[in-house]
Amino acid sequence: MEERAKYDDDRLSALPDDVLLAVLQLLDAGTAVRAGALARRWRHLRCLLTDLTIDVADLVPRSPDPSSPCQTVHDMMTAYTAATAWFLTPNKQRSIKSLRLTFYLVDSYLRSIGDAVAKSGGSAAGPLEFTILADVDVLTVNDAERAMLARRFMSFLAACPVAFSGLTRLSLQNLCFGDSDISDLLGTCSRLELLSLSQCGSSSEDMLLRIDAPTSSFRTLEIREPFFHGVELTNVPKLERLFCDEDVVSFHGSCPAVRFGHVPCLDDVYLSTIHLRYYYENPRELFPAFSNLRAIYLNNLGTHRLVGTLFILQAAPLLNKLSIKVRLLFFPKIRVAKCKHMQAHVL
């Protein structure tokens, strides 16, 4: 059996580099590392990979013994940092087309990851994505811990500006931002197109998330289970899509009121009607923000608010898709006003 396996391995290693590279490109990071450790023929190929996804979860050994001790976060991040440096070894023969990293926000490893990305050239023209996980229990984490994690992240940002300058997508969780943190983040991440915030809050006195980014490439904002009391999109001229968690009041957080400033490119909105509570009293202030809107998804709409939502149709003359999730125990007959350009509505 061993001789047969060795023979099969030899046959595989005899294939041309481009074929082996195509095979290696399909493997997750952990399998690719193990392949390189077992076969010398494969080792140099990791420097030729152009589309890289390195996820800390892929580097955790899967033991068949359920009683075996679990790895600590430091164990995982030690392996992750080594694997990242291994994959991102600079090579003049390749130009990385896409790079996606998922790792824990553990202080002693962040600089090494940022330096590896910077030295490799990152993904100069294509997607460069960071998904940064918080090493906390989401059920017990408190504001002080979130503030500490935010300071750790901002130190990482300040220490590795080259790595962050090429970032196109960033996902963060369980951070409590200071007054200028978001502005500093968007200022450093000049290519950033998507920012996803999960269970995040603000340490400012009014606990608002304010985004004023007139020169940024920022196009998509996702907010899930927030601790913000409000979201103010003051000046985000390239913002196209806004997603806010549909829960009126989630287990973890609250439902912040959303206020729109200069967002001329906004064309896709997904939120709860409670997010729009400010505009029920000031409907005309919504008109400039929704003037180019093409699609809106409204959730947790109470039956007493159905008539009140007509101002949204008035504010969005170019709307062609309206989706509404009604919160009720029975469904009375409801007549839906239809915009001139609207092609679909869902109730």
From TrEMBL:
Protein name: F-box domain-containing protein
UniProt source species: Triticum turgidum subsp. durum (Durum wheat)
Parts forming coiled coils: none
InterPro entries named among the record's database cross-references: F-box-like_dom_sf, F-box_dom, F-box_plant, LRR_dom_sf, LRR_FXL15/At3g58940/PEG3-like
High-level lineage: Eukaryota, Viridiplantae, Streptophyta, Embryophyta, Tracheophyta
Domain F-box, residue spans: 9-45
